Amino acid sequence: MNKATTGNKRYPASEIIKRYRGVGLFITGTGTDIGKTTITAALAAAFRQLGLVVGVCKPINTGCPVRPDHAGGQATGNDDLIASDATILARAAGLTNNLDSLLPVLSPIRYCVPVSPHLAARMERRKPDWRRVAAALEYWQSRCDILLVEGAGGWKVPIDTAAPFAIGDMAAKIGLPVLIVAGCYVGTINHTWLTVQAVRQSRVPIFGIVANRRPATPDFGAMTSTDSLGKVTGVPLLATLPDTPFDDKDGIPSALVQTMLPVARKYWKQAKRPR
What we know:
This protein is an alpha/beta fold. The protein has a single domain, classed as Rossmann fold (3-Layer(aba) Sandwich), CATH 3.40.50.300. It is about 40% helix and about 20% strand. The chain is built from eleven helices and ten strands. A hairpin with a 4-residue loop joins β6 (about 160) and β7 (about 165). α2 packs parallel to α3 (about 85-90) and α2 crosses α11. The radius of gyration is 18 Å and the shape is globular. The mean pLDDT is about 90.
């Protein structure tokens, strides 16, 4: 396998973040709000059904609300903010005990403004503290059978435009195979193919594609576009999940977990295969 390539090697993250040595997956998407957190949570619950201890981490979160118990209601650092997505992942992974104490390893870097990480860092005048990400990865190294890492937005979402350094560069440093979350709509072929090509350029292995939010009555264009993803990109389409709205407090619907169960089983079998 070719060695993964990243952005500017002098960027601090390139020196601080080390390759994750255990079994895991990095979940990226073809765009923002494509449903990465839903898919990651459903996958975490599926791995739990296989009897595995699951670790979850979303290294960078934006759009995080200020903790209600924080004095003054003004955020000055990562721990002043609530990591809503990471909390959903933690619940799906069964990490409900001492959730507050786990937040630094579930969601190391948090920003309040709901924009791209590079803009959030500039607007809040806080550069990403990559030591927190490195510490989170090291924490999970000896505490789970499999680690699911969710990216922010898509593969090319910038973290620092001056470096340059993007989400895909961070993923390449972590070194886990990639699961791509795509949508079920006309245009998904283009978006998914571009994402596949970008991941391949980073020399990171791709495990597969999961199509999310298939309408109950999809039109012909959306249906044929989604079903063509595997053939067009050369990456297997592992599952297609229906559009299933749910309340975060109720947890991930069992139907989504059951759809992801064969995906979890396939990856675990592949990951544990003697090399």
